[in-house]
Amino acid sequence: MELSVNTFVSLDGVMQGPGGPDEDRSNGFEHGGWLVPHAGEGQLDPVDGWFREADAFLLGRSTFEMMRTFWSQVTVEPDNIVSTALNTWKKYVVSNTLSDEDAAWGDTTVLRGDDIIDQVRRLKEQPGRELQVHGSWQLARTLHDAGLVDTYRLIQFPVVIGTGKRLFEDGAVPSTYKITSGEVQNGVVSLTLRQDGFGSVGTGDIVVEDGKEVLI
Hints:
Elements: E1 2-9, H1 46-52, E2 54-60, H2 61-71, H3 81-88, E3 90-94, E4 108-111, H4 116-124, E5 130-134, H5 137-145, E6 151-156, E7 175-185, E8 188-198, E9 206-209, E10 212-215
Parallel strand pairs: 1-5, 1-6, 2-3, 2-5, 3-4
Antiparallel strand pairs: 6-8, 7-8, 9-10
């Protein structure tokens, strides 16, 4: 399986607590629910497509508990692909504190220990389409720095939060990507980016030669 990270971000890269005031108040975050006033008709349509690419989900503990609380209540929408996927498909949650009983939500396995990167590598070796990470800020960063993220899917909203957990904080391993798809839908930008280089970023210069601007 390939590994993808799927998330909502602000213009300044914040991914913390987009869906509600109490989704993630850690570090004193006071802007939870910042996505909601900007979510117009059709803006979240790409999310259904994200989930149709998944065979399994990999989540951090906080995101797992938040999703379980919300999506386990969505039981009367048979055509809701997100609800169906999260409630019934294979899930892995990374946690050294959750017991198997605490993690009970459909087909869920707890990944524990100090070798999470190796465990995820083994999951990626299994047949299938995608192992998907949703939200899970700390986990997403760990997987990025290990070079395990094949694809990012982002919906970027036209709002600057100014504080909060960012998808790429300072110190992230330099990487390059190719945009494989992108569209503007009712004021938001939906992007799919595939890793094209890990561990370095090429540089160049802009100079003037014979009166012309030249990139070298």
